[in-house]
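Late entry, evening session. Most of the bench is empty. Finally got around to the prediction I had been postponing all week. Sequence below, unchanged from the version circulated by S.P.
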Amino acid sequence: MTLSSLKPRPLIAGNWKMNGLAQALDEARAVAGGVDARPAAARVAICPPATLLHRLSQALEGSSVLTGGQDCHVRTSGAHTGDIAAAMLVDAGAALVILGHSERREDHGETSALVAAKVEAALAAGLEPIICVGESLARREAGSALQVVTAQVRESLPAALAGQAFSIAYEPIWAIGTGRTATIADIEEMHASIRAQLISMFGESGKAPPILYGGSVKPDNAAEILRAAEVGGALVGGASLKAADFLAIIAAA
């Protein structure tokens, strides 16, 4: 998937994480119905657990709402029990994939080098990657947040991304699922730093990829966050599980 514009539409992506059984498909249908009834300014995606991806893609067929995976393996196939190849996500209907989420980096020890390899695998399968970066509270309090995050950007993005469609999701780890959010000034400072790193790596095309914010985005703070400089959308966790909340965030884009 190649980059089509230097100013792509914002992206609002829901990350369901390890949540959702069959009945959750009704919430997704409600989201699609709301988006299609009143077309959004942003592109909209839902990334469910792998057990729901195919059924969700079928349920949303014909809708403008995209579906995505939450991870993929670096290999195309093989003896990797429990893992999912990028082509399998595509086969299940996915258009996007989240890679390098802090919960993968922390819970599974994923390095930025591994994330970069997964990005290459995703691109080879035709998926649009959402690449996550973010700092811990300890790193922020130590004054090294900018250095940590820009290093993650530099090390997690392979050269193969040049000219391709992708986005970066900045998620301050200390704000995920805690109800805390970074200040607008903090968000703008970090997103500006990420943009500068993208331009350093990819030149003029580095101005294009949306930079999403993903730290406890909710209906009551979405509009302010999405108006901030260099915020090109949101990666939404818990609020994406409820159609009413997710639609309110989408409407704020």
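Two things to note before I forget:
Strands lie at 11-15, 43-47, 66-69, 96-99, 128-133, 167-170, 211-213, 233-236.
The radius of gyration is 17 Å.
Will write this up properly tomorrow.
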